[in-house]
Backbone:
């Protein structure tokens, strides 16, 4: 099966110069110590925005869901860091930190993870009355640290130019909060980040096809938000369609193929 697929994918055609956006699904959140305490927000999904000359007729597209990479042939984006109840995970963007030290029942604000291409996650917060998670990092900015009344807001996403049109991607998820006092819901970053939960509310998912990070849990088993799915966009100059696959639109001066699910980009 693999040999036949390789033979199909390597059929020669007239080379086609394209630009592409390969965006992973956004990061979700990990429960390190159970579902009844807050977590940091998930980081925005990693992306690749570049150009290539495609020389094979069949080009295989994988569109990642939450915590899953996207691909154009062998071109693969990386993942954002997950939000945690301990130190946030590292990734393309950093996951928001929590407040568990990882040593028994010791509590203290924990830092967010670092981002290799985007912003870091925000630090968590702990006091006698409040525990909260930091915001997940976005492709365009760091997540905010949690404070005494709310989880950290998610970091801003990135404005990517796709066929000459701005598209916001990779916002970080907001951190969750649990407090005996009044609380404020944290917001996800621009570019599809999900909002964090505040006490007994439900965190929201990252927006579909933005790679936005999921919002963090508040209190109780109400659930973290999942990361938003990714997307693969391929475009080339002109108005004549030179390939099939995805949803085809024609912004001024370009033909754009947008894949919101996995598929094949077939050069004519």
Residues:
């Amino acid at each position: 099966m693999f040999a036949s697929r390789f033979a199909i994918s390597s059929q020669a055609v007239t080379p086609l110069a394209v630009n592409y956006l390969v965006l992973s699904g956004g990061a979700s959140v990990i429960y390190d110590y159970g579902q009844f305490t807050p977590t940091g927000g998930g980081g925005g999904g990693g992306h690749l925005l570049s150009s290539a000359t495609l020389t094979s007729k069949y080009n295989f597209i994988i569109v990642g869901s939450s915590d899953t990479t996207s691909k154009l042939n062998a071109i693969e984006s990386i993942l954002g860091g997950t939000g945690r109840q301990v130190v946030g995970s590292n990734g393309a963007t950093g996951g928001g930190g929590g407040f568990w030290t990882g040593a028994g029942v010791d509590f203290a604000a924990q830092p967010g993870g670092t981002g290799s291409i985007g912003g870091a996650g925000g630090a968590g917060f702990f006091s006698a009355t409040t525990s909260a998670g930091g915001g997940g990092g976005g492709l365009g900015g760091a997540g905010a640290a949690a404070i005494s009344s709310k989880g950290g807001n998610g970091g801003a996403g990135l404005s990517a130019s796709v066929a000459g049109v701005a598209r916001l991607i990779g916002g970080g998820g907001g951190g969750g909060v649990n407090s005996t006092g009044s609380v404020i819901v944290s917001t996800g970053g621009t570019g599809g980040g999900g909002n964090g939960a505040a006490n007994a509310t439900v965190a929201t998912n990252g927006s579909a096809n933005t790679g936005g990070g999921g919002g963090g849990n508040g209190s109780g088993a109400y659930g973290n938000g999942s990361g938003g799915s990714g997307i693969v966009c391929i475009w080339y100059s002109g108005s004549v369609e030179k390939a099939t696959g995805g949803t085809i639109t024609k912004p001024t001066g370009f033909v754009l193929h947008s894949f919101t699910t996995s598929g094949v980009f077939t050069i004519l």
About this structure: The CA atoms of residues 109 and 125 lie 5 Å apart. The radius of gyration is 20 Å. Confidence is low (pLDDT under 50) at residues 1-8. The first strand starts at residue 12 and ends at 23.
